[in-house]
Amino acid sequence: MIRPEDIRFCVAPMMDWTDRHCRYFHRLLTRKARLYTEMLTTGAVKHGDRARLMGFNEFERPVAFQLGGSDPKELAFATKIVESQGYAEVNLNVGCPSDRVQNGAFGACLMLQPKLVADCVKAMKDATVLPVTVKCRIGVDDQDPEIALFELAENSIAAGVDALFIHARKAWLKGLSPKENRDIPPLDYTIVHRLKKSFPKTPIAINGGLETILQIKEQLQHVDGVMVGRAAYHNPALLMMIDAELFNAPKPVHDDFEAIEALSSYIEKELVKGERLSNITRHLLGLFAGQPGARLFRQKLTSQATKPNASLETLRSAVNEVRVATLRLQLAHAEKLAEAESQ
Predict the structure, then answer these.
(1) Whose CB among 152, 184, 254, 310 lies 3.0–4.6 Å from 314's, allowing a Cys bridge?
(2) Which structural domain, as residue segments, surrounds residue 315?
(3) Residue 22 is among the residues annotated as catalytic for this protein
(4) What's 327's domain CATH number?
């Protein structure tokens, strides 16, 4: 069984975002959050380049691996591979509404087949000593969430699931794009709270629409954990607060400049291996939000980091835009004060 403290705060698995560079950066900002990989299908795990697709840095731990699939035997096989790679948890995707997963009959489609989800969970549990968890929606299309969510939870719990992560929205498989499915269906946190009351012994985390420490703390009054996606990715400052605010632990870094410096040695090592700077720095564009020079930082990094000769100095040059803009603002403020005092 996964412990409630292990899911107190999690960064959601996000396709094309939570790759190994993103996770390393996020781990610099928070030592306490549980990090998740992008979803990988059972076929990719079985036949793909595992070193490239599944490799991660020891510093990222604990890292959970999200699997996509609907065949219990294939999921069991993939779960064994996940365990062998050193991950801390294997999570079954029952929430993604993209065309890709619909064509493969997994992801959010599995909300329609709770008994199959239970079979998948049991097969995965039988294949590993790792915690097996499920991330789902509260329902899809015309399903009644009061029936769909509780039926999925009941079947999964009976199969031995170690925790449930609930995105508190429906997914519309027809009529909405994956992007629209992240915003348009209304949030219903209370149904997740009721689910927790119905299954008090099962760790349950809530996902969807949470953007601030205050909102997160409010949800932790009702459930065991929260999972935050886009807000954590686009606002690194949120991650910098997690350890102190939710775990009463020291902040690993205290500001955006310190975060950049902490990441520098990692970037240098990756560049030596032949990695492109832009593959790392694309995850840093949320830094310095709201600060003087932030727009120039993003523009310079976006335009320069993709060049073949881009280096750590390219990043530092972009950061310098913030330093210069901040200094100019401070000087202008000081001049105004001096002028006011002389009158």
Answers:
(1) 310
(2) 256-342
(3) no
(4) 1.20.120.1460
